[in-house]
Amino acid sequence: MMSKSELFVSLAQIPEGDPRLDAVNAVLSDKPKPEPPASIRLLRMGQAAAETGLSRCTIWRAIREGRIKAVEVRRGSHRIPMSELQRLCRGEKQ
């Protein structure tokens, strides 16, 4: 374990603007750690099915029932945000 003086020396070496410094500031000020930016990657139905291990029919059903938000890029053609798949896999509700 580092001594306090060693810890301060190593913290002083972190450059300004480094995300690690924001995390340290959040811990020291008792604020929650900043959330990383959400992924904006959009997947086709087949890609979404392969990523989750679900069938395309199950993905379509989840979209139709409103359990997954999808982006309709043109009539009948949907893309699923990666963040939606991650939310679904974590078992979180909308």
Structural description of this entry:
Helices cover 48% and strands 12% of the residues. The protein is mainly alpha-helical and 94 residues long. It folds into 2 domains: 1-36, no CATH class; 42-90. The protein has a 3-stranded antiparallel beta sheet with strand order 1-3-2. A hairpin with a 2-residue loop joins strand 2 (71-74) and strand 3. It is elongated. The mean pLDDT is 84.
What is the overall silhouette?
elongated
The chain-level mean pLDDT equals 84
Number of domains: 2
Helix residue percentage: 40-55%
Distance between the termini: 42 Å
- Report the count of strand segments: 3
Strand content: 5-15%
Radius of gyration, whole Å: 20 Å
User: How many helices in DSSP terms?
Assistant: 5
Major β-sheet profile: 3 strands, antiparallel
- State the secondary-structure class: mainly alpha
The topology string of helices and strands comes to: HHEHHEEH
How do you describe this structure in short?
This protein is mainly alpha-helical. The chain contains five helices and three strands; from the N terminus they run H-H-E-H-H-E-E-H. A hairpin with a 2-residue loop joins strand 2 and strand 3 (77-81).
